[in-house]
Amino acid sequence: MKGLLSWLFPGGLVLVAATAVAYGPEGLVAVASRGFPWIAFGWAALLAGSRHRSRVVALILGLVALAAMASSGAGGMPALYVGGGLFALSAVVLVPFGDRGVFSAMGLMQIACVGALGVLGGSFLYLAPGVTTGLLAADLVYPAVTDRLGVPLPVMTAFVLAVLMVFVVALRRDGPVERGILWSVLAVALALCLAGDPGRVLVLFMGAGLTLGLSVLDPSSAWAYRDGLTGLPGRRALLRDLQLMRGSYATAVVDIDDFSQFNDRYGHDVGDQVLRMVASRLTKVPGGGRAYRYGGDEFALLFPGRTEAETLRHLGGFQRSLQDSPFGLRRWRRPRAKTGDPGTAKTEGGTPTRRLIVKVSVGVADSSADESAPEAVLKRADEAVHGSGRKG
Q1: For residue 381, which of 42, 63, 157, 253 is within the disulfide window of CB 3.0 to 4.6 Å?
Q2: Angstrom distances, CA of residue 343 to CA of 319, 324, 328, 355, 358
Q3: What does the pLDDT look like over 267-326, one tens digit per residue?
Q4: Prediction pTM value
Q5: Domain 235-333+348-385 belongs to what topology?
Q6: What is the arithmetic mean of pLDDT over 183-203?
Q7: Confidence band, pLDDT 50/70/90 cuts, at residue 3
Q8: What is the per-residue pLDDT across 230-273, written as a single tens digit (0 to 9) for each?
Q9: Sheet holding 360-366, edge to edge
Q10: What is the largest distance, in Å, between two alpha-carbon atoms of the chain?
């Protein structure tokens, strides 16, 4: 039941609501189509861009172009049909790939792909309008079906292909973005069935945009990028953000020395306390770095605009501060409120709290080397902390 709801919500609900408005009273359609679609597109694009969902941004730009054609009437019905078919083909091209940052190489390529399809379709309409009209009118297979739906066969074929392709990918990945793309394609297909009424078309385009925007808000997707124990962004978030790095930057890997002794001598609860404490301290390291849980007892940091030497200075201070402030082991009976002298923390029974020394090793690499690909920079930092390179 939960799996079915994840498919129906929010995309299915938004499509039902948009359809109800589109088929509602003319006054309601006029109000809903006046400015709300553009607000929805802007909100969805900003949200998707901030969450590095390049495919969603690319498709929203396609929706903006479609909405502009519908509201202005530029090119008439042929232009709207061609644009809708190209939107479906854009979904076919984009859905097999993953999302990246909007300004990353892959993100720009995805947006450029949608733009190129639009330019190709526009050029064809402008240079050969008669041929375009003839192709749209040709239907030797299902004339009764296309007449009833009001959508030309080539365009309908593009949407059938898009729905099948996106559905298969969504089944394999079970991702909210893929499901959002599927519902947005269905919304645009339904809008083309109402192509004679620009207001109703805009309402359904707005539904498609809202569906895409809501797809990036899925909480399970957000938690997939965050480590549950420390609250830091996880390995997936690190690899994603590495791809977004531009210009000079440094990467650091931080390893807790002899971490197994905390688990072996004091139990895994104490090991978890140590991990949380180190994670908390790493978030306060100066230099503008962002901390991540790299895996196990390792953490990573990204320092945009920093060199290896600058990063080592910042992390050197962190190492000394960590070593000079012993970790107070929180026993199950230890009161959370400190009383008396903070240097003599005690349990409820009056026995001193055990103080543990936590040390870390640090490996740093920056993008100034010949091999400056993000994966290579991270690998050099990882090798450095494990002794095959320089160790901080």
Answers
A1: 253
A2: 21, 13, 10, 11, 17
A3: 888 888 889 999 999 999 988 889 999 988 999 999 988 899 999 999 988 888 888 877
A4: 0.64
A5: Alpha-Beta Plaits (3.30.70)
A6: 90
A7: low
A8: 888 888 888 878 877 777 899 999 999 988 888 888 888 888 88
A9: 290-295, 298-304, 249-256, 360-366
A10: 92
**For the chain, domain boundaries:** 2-223, 235-333+348-385
- Residues 360-391 have pLDDT tens digits of 999 999 988 766 788 889 999 999 887 644 44
Q: Could you identify the residue written with the tokens 């969504």?
A: 170
Gyration radius from the chain CA atoms: 28
Q: What gap in Å lies between CA 302 and CA 314, rounded to an integer?
A: 12
Alpha carbon distance 283, 280 (integer Å) = 5
